[in-house]
Amino acid sequence: MTKKVFLITLLMVLSIPCKSQEVSKINHSPKLVVGIVVDQMRYDYITRFYNRFGEGGFKRMINQGYNCKNNHFDYVPTYTGPGHASIYTGTTPKNHGVISNNWYDKFGKKMVYCASDASVKAVGSDSELERMSPHHMKTTTVADQNRLHTQLRGKTIGIAIKDRGAILPAGHTANAAYWFRGRDEGKWITSTYYCNELPGWVKEFNASDKAESYFKVWNTLYDIKTYTESGPDQNTFEGGYKGKETAAFPYDLSKLKDQNLGYDIIKSSAFGNSLTADFAIAAIEGEQLGADEVTDFLTVSFSSTDYVGHNFGVNSKEIQDTYLRLDKDLERFFNTLDAKVGRNQYTVFLTADHGAVHVPSYLKSVNIPAGYFERDAFTAKVKAFVKEEFKVEGLIENVSNNQVFFDYETLKKNKIISEDLQKTIAHFMLQEAQIDKVFTRSQLETVHYNTGIAARIQKGFNQKRSGDVIFVLDPATISYGSTGSTHGSGLIYDTHAPLLFFGQGIQKGSTTQKTHITDIAPTISALLGITFPNGATGDVLSFVLK
After folding, report:
1. Among 125, 136, 140, 389, which residue is least crowded by beta carbons within 10 Å?
2. Nearest to 408, CA basis, from 357, 468, 461, 454
3. What is the pLDDT of residues 289-306, one digit of tens each?
């Protein structure tokens, strides 16, 4: 072989990519994944307020990323706890077990909270009310799988005003989850599930006057006359704050705080989202998230949108101003990610944990069927009927979350067959005004439903934790006060939530193809090249990924 031929052959060999290089390219992951949940965000808030948004927040995600316009929850109930768990586990309450925010524990004979854990204590607060962990959630999250995949080198940090919004997304293996303790404290705290002492950066943040700085006047960001996308500021459909006669701008939070549980008033204003963004930005620096090639996970839930929605309603000027301010908070958050992690070095998804219904009293005022359901009176009526029909006291142990739980010891003692009691109660309930549908445990365990409310009820039915009879209210009928919005149903106003992706590995575009909340975790898992959460039932949205 001549010297010239040898050199040509050598160059050809060197130009062939080695197998390890190709694998590295295939599995190349972002330095940081950021999951954002906007509590109680209906999809139409994007379209309704779009022209008022700046270029760096929601619009940046839409214009530079991928917009799933027809994204839905595929189970009932649509509450905060199940929503956050379903987003990050890639499955529904049927499998992950978080069947509500609070539910009746038929074995312990008591109500339990989705994030409560008596075996741990609060860190950063002396309150006995802040003993929290994810132990009620039965499956892993995508953040858990990233931790396992990286041999625990990839960090996970969860942040939200609400404890459940921080804890459930971050999963079982998180380095930390932080939530905001209001009342007279105004601090970001955690629990001994994660650590025994707050890190220095959290102590430093709490020692600053950042939270206290939001005790100020909340007025509209722009001239209120330009808020034509919302209803009148003065109306009878909003709650407002104690100490102020009208639910109308402006609100002096400093003057109102003593009558509204101190720092809790910040949580229930637009400034709660700003405080969350402040803390999330501090976490990026304090935890050095995205600082190396091992993928980290940051979960951020903006909870104050839910508090404002519950108080003022879907059509309020307050909800519009909250989203216009959140848009600016997102912009500065993304700018921080650009500076600290690097453009196109991180991946973000944004969704919601549920939507919300228009205030029923408002709907009735414009001739749309709606109403209010007296749950206590209905419960008493059902119990009285069952007692009269079966001549036995105490067959019904609990009624909560639109579910009836039986006392099986009493059934056994009186030789009453559960299926007979289920059918009797279901038939009785269907005769009642405002009850639209009823499902029994026997139906949900033996019949497979493919579509509609029945399918969504079934995906929210956990065989071990759920009740024996489940009832569904009429559309836009809620068990709630006469002002403000709520959620929980399987109807479109509660199930249709935004789903935006942008950043590394994400295509640019949009779709009206139907997608589901449970598709998010498998899609991010596929992006990272990691195992899906162990209970995942959703699909990979391959059209979102490059």
Report:
1. 389
2. 468
3. 999 999 999 999 999 999
